Amino acid sequence: MSRALAHIALFLVFSPAGAADPAPVPRTAAKPATAVAESSLATGSGQIRQFAFDGDPNTYFASEKNATKADHFTLTFDTPVPVKSVRVATGLPKGGAKLDAGVLEVSADGKAFEELAQFADGAAHGAPKGKVKAVRVRPTDDLKHPLVIREITVDADPRVAVFHHPIEFVVNVAAAPDMKEWANNAARVCERQYPMICEELASDGFAPLTVIQMTLRADYNGVAEAGGGRITGSVKYFKAHPDDVGAMVHETVHCVQMYRGRGNPGWLVEGVADYIRFFKYEATKPRPLPPERAKYDGSYRTSAAFLAFLADTYDPQIVRKLNAAMRAGKYKEDVWKDLTGKPVEDLGREWQKSLAK
């Protein structure tokens, strides 16, 4: 057989007729868009705004008072997305309070809205043309009942992430009305970060809060504090440091921690909160720490850096595991050896040595 024929024979052996082309490389799924739920109506009885877009038909948003034709409920995406369809179901799960006199509207820029569909028997459905930045439900008449939205369903590509950890911050700025815009912005930031915080500090059987009170007080001399689902901030401090929204994220972490009893070391409680703030929310380059001054139990940002070292060196989930132990009231010094094989003092010295490199 000639060399040319041999080449053809080899090709036939390794490339049989009808062989399929190589499978295409799958596309990386687009990052989902996120949303903010807002309304001109105050929330009633804990039926928060985010319940209207949480993927659960058994939860719902309900306004505190009867809605009027001047009111609205608006879901705004962080970026315009191609939307195939929007469905809205209104009314209480057991019946009643359905919206019939109303319209479903969409906006390409979050400012100018156009009608997509009218409500009938409490529901509306439409297929927008082009990208959508916001979806709005608006009564067209004064209602004799609160506005109740069971669920908004958005079919989009990339998808819009529903609120897996629904939360609403109730803002009180009676002591400083001029701080209303700042406080509302801080609340929206904390609401956006809430799912991340809940995931980072998840533990079996734990259900996070769905309502957190945020109050600014003129007679409070600290920065901020949290307890029992309430955050208190200093008017004086935040007027002087308006960019320090991260302080409110730190306090939001405390609202998620929900630790039992008083057996948890304070340095670790604050270290976890600052770990979430500086290494997950702000995610900035750690500030330099002189090894001789870096104490693992130095609390706040110093202890946060220690925890980040352990997450990088031993276990990416170590903060979650420490949090679970503290939340369950089972924290003991042995937990460090259980998680890393070393006592915390040895881990502290190892961290100090790493800072000298």
UniProtKB/TrEMBL annotation:
Signal sequence annotation: 1-19
InterPro entries assigned: Galactose-bd-like_sf, Uncharacterised_BSP
Keywords associated with the record: Signal
Stored Gene3D superfamilies: Galactose-binding domain-like
Keyword Transcription regulation attributed: no
Protein name as it appears in the record: Secretory protein
Species of the source: Frigoriglobus tundricola
Native organism taxonomy: Bacteria, Pseudomonadati, Planctomycetota, Planctomycetia, Gemmatales
